[in-house]
Design a protein that fits this description.
Elements (H helix, E strand, L loop, with lengths): L1 H8 L9 E3 L6 E2 L2 E2 L2 E5 L2 E8 L6 H16 L15 E8 L6 H4 L3
Length: 108
């Protein structure tokens, strides 16, 4: 995971202990599964592999992050009078299917 994060972000982290793995076990939504999630510094990274076309990946990511934040903040009182800092979401989908989103490639 650390090598992948470094490759995608141009960083040079070497200590695997700087990762906090928070992949949701058995997280399945409408036949969807959370692949890999971790926190590094102030980023919550979610990497998803997809071999079939799905135009709803942004919405699926939203649901995954919602549950990841619920898990992260489960013991924190959200009604406190101060701002609660959370890691920024970083969502990447690796797609290796052949189908394309024709809307993306149509001139408007």
């Amino acid at each position: 995971m650390l090598e992948l994060y470094n490759a995608l972000n141009g960083s040079h982290y070497e200590n695997p202990d700087s990762l906090i793995i928070n992949t949701l076990e058995n997280a399945v939504y409408m036949k969807m599964k959370n692949d890999v999630s971790f926190i590094i510094e102030s980023n919550m990274c979610l990497y998803k592999h997809q071999s079939s076309y799905c135009p709803n990946m942004p919405l699926r990511g939203f649901f995954y992050f919602s549950d990841l934040y619920k898990k992260l903040l489960k013991d924190i009182d959200l009604s406190v009078g101060k701002r609660i800092k959370i890691p920024a979401p970083n969502y990447i989908v690796f797609y290796n299917g052949k189908e394309r989103d024709e809307e993306e490639f149509t001139e408007k």
